[in-house]
Amino acid sequence: MSRLLCESHADINNDENMESVKKSPTGLTNKPEGRVLVLYTGGTIGMVRNEEGVLVPIANAFIKNLRRYPQLHDREYAEKTFGAMGPLVLPMTATDNRRVIYNVLEYSNLCDSSNMTMDEWIRIANDIKESYEYFDGFVILHGTDTLSYTASALSFMLESLGKIVIVTGSQMPIFDTRSDGLDNFLASLVIAANYSIPEVCVFFGTNLLRGNRTSKASASSFEAFHSPNFPPLATANIKIEVNYRSIFRSCNLEKFSVHASLNRNVGLLRLFPSITSDLVKVFLQSPIEGVVLQSYGMGNLPTNRDDIIKELRAATKRGVIIVNITQCATGCVSDAYEAGKLLRKNGVILGFDMTPEAALTKLAYVLSKHEWDTETKRQMMQTNLRGELTVGQPPTLQDWDLVEAVAKSLRLSSTAELQELGSILFPAMLSAAVIRRDIIKLESLQRYGADISQANADGRTALHIACCEGDIKVVRCLLKMGANIHIKDRFDRTPLTDAIEYDRHEIIKLLLQCGAHFHGNALLIGERMCAAASVGNTKRLQSYLLAGADLSQKDVSGRTPLHFAALHNHPETIEFLLENGADPHCLDILGQTAAELAETVRAENATRLLASSRRNIVVESTAKSHT
Ligand code: ASP
């Protein structure tokens, strides 16, 4: 990551404060915090005007300015909480649930997005990977010209994504007097810190869109992006309203990973009347491996052009994957017409309603999957991998939709009322099904339109409840249904925190296997472990250990769990701690070791155990010094 950080500068977010984020993911404030990493890659949003009035990116200027804008940085709070060189902090508004804390990583080569290449996409994906566990969400500041290509590519490269990634930019620089940049940036930060939408999104104007459904539609409007074939995931007006039912959730038990290679032998070929077969032939020549063919209307090409058909057939026979999408701004290809069928017969596959950006970047991704043979790659191009295409009929609301039925009987009808009802009903019913261990009910609730990750008023989801309840079958079922493992409730607890607090060891292992990571303020964790050690609760300490905690973590008095186990004379706990790397030499703020505490309170068993551990360590180190 340091490769990409801007040069160290007194007023910027540098390596040092990135380190402070890693060490202390959560501050000790009352309001829960949402941590966001901003990757600033370039584009108009951060540009400034030079002496000639021309827009140019200037290294470090963006971050320096951020600290001066009260809408973008609550200096008083930030300095009180993190010191002068800490991260940036958004001012709190009455409606926010979380304090937004953000760090900015400025790329060394700030670029106009017309200069972006696949190398930059890979670089962004790798940067997200490196800091994935330290942040709740990511905002990528990007030029608008190729923004949809980047968003689409990232949606494929970031596999089993469990956190939100928002790509945004602006038509005018953020620090111009009139600019769309400020709103786009602020809304993106707030959404990234507060909402669990595990997708690569684009935010622009007032809409949060699925990234791989977007195209740049206007060179000048503040609503520059459209999502022709899919509704917004959320709208940010006075209220931020999320359409939870349309969120794409990956339903596997895999950890988040980055597929960091792409096949560059891909291209976009747009048909036009009188296109020559020579042009088609040249276009399809080796080394090309994948082509997005933009045909007419619902996927048609001229049926009287055997010369073109011949070239297409020859290419698909050679193994080139040709994906048919429409030139129209909206709609889907199908083989409803003879002209479309002809393409299918000659090996061209349907790209359904994919945008050109999504189809091209998906090809680059699919073709770079060496573990897939050609037939699998062709199948994957026609499969909905990240919500980028609609196969068959778009899902419609069924008359038996549960919320609608209840709404009818309560005589509620507006969309807002329906949404509100759904947000109350579904979390309650999902929790009830979890408590009854009723997997069939969980599945049918999802069919009725419940978002499996929807939280109740306390921010708790069905997965939180299931981790407390402890039935691993229910937990596995929720994960397979797409439940998000990273959601923090109002008390900043994730499902993993609950599994630890209820000593659900098998569930802890499963959550970790699916990419959950241990988080929280180190001192608070230290305090909880010390409390467990005080009462000899070895099982709880095992839970912490399984989750990846450091058993030598201190509490505010500098005491470790070993100090407390010694003080309260719990030999079994002492043995467990020593076997698992607890440091018997650790001193508390009074300068005392665990053994000294045990001696002071005459805890005999503890004193004996700690004395022998000390002897063992002395013997070991003497042996080492002799070798
Ligand atoms: N040319 C700029 C870019 O794409 C336009 C913008 O940022 O809006 O980087």
UniProtKB/TrEMBL annotation:
**Catalytic positions?**
T44, T144
* Asparaginase/glutaminase C-terminal domain location: 265-381
Q: Known InterPro entries for this protein?
A: Ankyrin_rpt, Ankyrin_rpt-contain_sf, AsnA_fam, Asp/glu_Ase-like_sf, Asparaginase/glutaminase-like, Asparaginase/glutaminase_AS1, Asparaginase/glutaminase_AS2, Asparaginase_C
Q: Which annotated residues bind substrate?
A: S113, T144, D145
**Name of this protein:** asparaginase
Q: Where are the ANK repeats?
A: 458-490, 557-589
Report the EC code(s) recorded for this entry. Answer: 3.5.1.1
Which molecular function GO terms apply here? asparaginase activity
Per UniProt, residues of the L-asparaginase N-terminal domain are 35-245
Q: Which UniProt keywords apply?
A: ANK repeat, Hydrolase, Repeat
Q: What family is it from?
A: In the N-terminal section; belongs to the asparaginase 1 family.
Swiss-Prot/TrEMBL GO biological process terms: asparagine metabolic process
